[in-house]
Specification:
CATH architecture of the largest domain: 3-Layer(aba) Sandwich
Largest sheet: 8 strands, mixed
Radius of gyration: 41 Å
CATH class of the largest domain: Alpha Beta
Strand order of the largest sheet: 3-4-2-5-1-6-7-8
Structural class: alpha/beta
Number of strands: 10
Number of domains: 2
Bound molecules: guanosine-5'-triphosphate, magnesium ion
Length: about 575
């Protein structure tokens, strides 16, 4: 058997095992079920069959409850091996009937590996009762499945699992039930797999067999179910020992006998069904690849929605700390305290040298400088906290606009506000920045003359002046239109010019502003990361859509190259 196909199926198992469809996007429930169903079919059937084409063929007898599945199996074997009954559903544990020579394989083989083999008829939907009988030819096993339309969930799922693992189907329905929707849902699945199907139309009122067969044929044709045989069995008034009359089921027996006759014939059926199943997996994988891509896209959208809010907060803080809007309230009045406004305003027009002399007199010691620094610290802290709080809220609100984002927010409502202790963290960061600014000022004031001037003003006051210039310096230019703030910043600028000379001011302001921006962005990044971490925790592998597509391509290619020569098994 083809190595490439086996490798692709192994890869399929691995990729299906890693699929994450964490967000409740439209259709996700069906997609998750599809993952399970495909994975199950791969371990139950595709991998074992690709490994051993000569393993016994598995014919699964499926259909609605009470259709007579168990009755048919008993009739084919000429002995009651599977319990039949009036209580619905009767068959709960599937019965796997085989020739004694195949018994060991059925008991220990890898197909349907999740079902525990048992010799007894125990009412357990995870068990597989194995019955060996000489009545069946070697090389063909029949499995009496539970009903497809069961009131019992476990029965229903198990019947589908078994049909998905079959090499051929014997689908039993009755004259009164063959048009039922559930039956057709499954027959369409059979058509999609292009599996060998026999439809047994049981309990036909005697004389109606031909008409019913014709009608059923039309229905099968309309659904593109090509690869099938129909056997209409008349209703028997009295089942005698519980067995259908041998004569009536002879055509079914012959059909099965032909399928099982000879190794080559069995292998042809097995290969045909395997190829059909593999081909059927391919489009389903493409559906899953698209689903995984939608998940990745939805996650990327959520990530972007959150980061947009934090980018905006960063810009807003950046602007508010440079467009003069900080120069009000406590910051402004402390500054005015520090420099003694009215005299200063008048002095502004005079020459810088004269101004410098006067300024030296204005600064009244370090206490006012310190108070000024406190006002700056409080002001910047409040500003950052306000914007980051809004960013958290807005990012959470943006997520809540989709049901899947909403589900993340409701699981993790703390995202909607900054972490506990954030304000203290901001205050600490702002103070650290202020001390950066003081370092900057001290560094700049290293020469003897400059140092003397710096001492005359006080480092805190000069640092505060630099911060005032930062607060009023948009894009490196002091804004003239900020009114009183403009006046304020001009004074501050003169102070700095007085201490450091004209050229240094712009450079120092730029550097101080950059340091503030960096520190603020670090704070923002920590808050934003919580949103990103929440998304990372979903565990979506971004490579998954590509990997699924690759496996789908590989399956298509290996099915095509390995089995191109295939035609239908003769006579079916
Ligand atoms: N009289 C009569 N009874 C039949 C015929 N075929 C099946 N039955 C009865 O119909 C009932 C249901 O048959 P089962 O073979 O148990 O049906 P099943 O499809 O295996 O049902 P579940 O195991 O529940 O899915 C039994 O009591 C059978 O004896 C028939 O041709 N004539
Ligand atoms: Mg039964």
């Amino acid at each position: 058997m083809n190595e490439t196909l086996r490798a692709s199926l192994a890869r399929l198992d691995e990729v299906l095992g890693r699929i994450q469809l964490p967000l409740p996007l439209d259709g996700v429930a069906e997609q998750r079920t599809l993952v399970e169903v495909l994975r199950q079919q791969n371990t139950d059937y595709l991998l074992p069959r690709a490994e051993r084409l000569d393993a016994p063929l598995l014919a699964v007898v499926g259909g609605s409850t009470g259709a007579g599945k168990s009755t048919l199996v008993n009739a084919l074997l000429g002995a009651v091996v599977s319990r039949t009954g009036v209580l619905r559903p009767t068959t709960k544990t599937p019965t796997h009937v085989c020739h004694p020579r195949d018994r060991e394989w059925i008991r220990t083989g890898p197909h349907l590996g999740g079902l525990v083999r048992s010799d007894d008829d125990i009412p357990d939907s995870r068990a597989l009762r194995v019955v060996a009988t000489e009545q069946l030819s070697a090389g063909l096993a029949i499995l009496d499945a539970p009903d497809i339309d069961s009131v019992d969930d476990a029965n229903r799922l198990l019947s589908r699992q078994l049909l998905a693992a079959a090499d051929l189907w014997i689908f039993v329905t009755t004259a009164s039930r063959y048009a039922d929707a559930v039956a057709w849902e499954l027959l369409e699945a059979a058509a999609a797999r292009d599996i060998v199907v026999a439809v047994v139309l049981n309990r036909c009122p005697p004389g109606t067999e031909a008409d019913l067969t014709a009608h059923l044929t039309d229905m099968l044709d309309a659904r593109g179910i090509r690869f099938r045989h129909i056997f209409a069995l008349p209703e028997q008034e009295d089942l005698g020992a519980g067995l259908l009359t041998a004569g009536e089921i002879a055509p079914v027996r012959r059909w099965i006998g032909r399928l099982a006759a000879g190794r080559e014939q069995r292998a042809t059926v097995a290969v045909h069904s395997l190829v059909g199943a593999v081909r059927n997996v391919e489009p389903q994988l493409r559906t899953l690849a698209a689903a995984a891509a939608s998940q990745a896209e939805a996650i990327a959208d959520l990530r972007e929605a959150a980061s947009k809010e934090f980018r905006r907060a960063s810009l807003d803080i950046g602007q508010a700390t440079s467009d003069g809007s900080m120069l009000r309230g406590e910051v402004l009045s402390r500054w005015q305290d520090l420099v003694g406004t009215s005299d200063l305003m008048r002095a502004l027009d005079k020459r810088i040298a004269a101004l410098r002399d006067r300024l030296t007199g204005w600064v009244s010691g370090t206490r006012k400088g310190e108070q000024m620094q406190v006002a700056i610290s409080d002001g910047v802290t409040a500003l950052v906290v306000e914007h980051v709080t809004a960013a958290c809220q807005d990012a959470a609100a943006a997520w809540a606009r989709t049901p899947w984002g909403q589900s993340l927010i409701s699981e993790d409502s703390a995202l909607a506000r900054p972490t506990a202790g954030f304000e203290a963290e901001v205050a600490k960061t702002v103070r650290a920045w202020q001390s950066d600014v003081l370092d900057l000022v001290e560094n700049e004031g290293k020469g003897r003359r400059r140092h003397a001037r710096l001492l005359a003003f006080g480092t805190n006051a000069v640092g505060a002046a630099l911060i005032m210039v930062v607060f009023a310096t948009t894009g490196g230019l002091t804004t003239a239109e900020v009114g009183i703030a403009g006046g304020t910043s001009v004074i501050a600028q003169r102070v700095l010019e007085g201490v450091f000379g004209d050229d240094a001011v712009r450079r120092l302001a730029k550097e101080a502003k950059q340091q503030l921006d960096l520190r603020v962005d670090d704070l923002l990044a920590i808050q934003q990361a919580r949103f990103a971490t929440r998304l990372d925790k979903l565990g979506l592998d971004e490579e998954l859509p590509n990997q699924l597509t690759k496996v789908a391509d590989d399956l298509r290619d290996s099915a095509a190259s390995a089995f191109d020569y295939l035609t239908r098994p003769e006579g079916y």
